[in-house]
Amino acid sequence: MQKTPAGEVVVVPRNFKLLEELEKSEKGHGEMSISFGLSDPADTFLTDWNGGILGPVGTYYADRWYELRIHCPPNYPAVPPQVRFITKINMACVDKHGIVMEKKLNVTKNWNRNHGIEQVLSGIRLEMTTDANRKLRQPADGTAY
Hints:
Elements: E1 2-3, E2 9-10, H1 14-26, E3 34-38, E4 48-54, E5 65-71, E6 82-85, H2 106-109, H3 117-128
Antiparallel strand pairs: 1-2, 3-4, 4-5, 5-6
């Protein structure tokens, strides 16, 4: 949602929001420790995305690149995207199949339509630094689900 200069609330359509997110990502604007883009450039519905997170320094995730798949359902951005790790990871908010559990990640648990893919990936990276996760031993580097 966005507000006009007159104070009216405008609901931005799904594809407009996703196109804006894609453009920002492709131009390298935003946090440099995360990355995301379309899985298939011909996907006119902007549904399936690839993502990556560079593990934060001072954690067992450091110096590792975590690959993810992101699915934006038809009712996105009213609901958060579905995120699944490809790279094996040990985190409190990720199940044994690599799926990020929405109810255990702050950004998805407190979702609003102004959030986007960048906020979800940043939220996951931030979660890596919490006391509950930072010292968790990780699977061997390069292993996948």
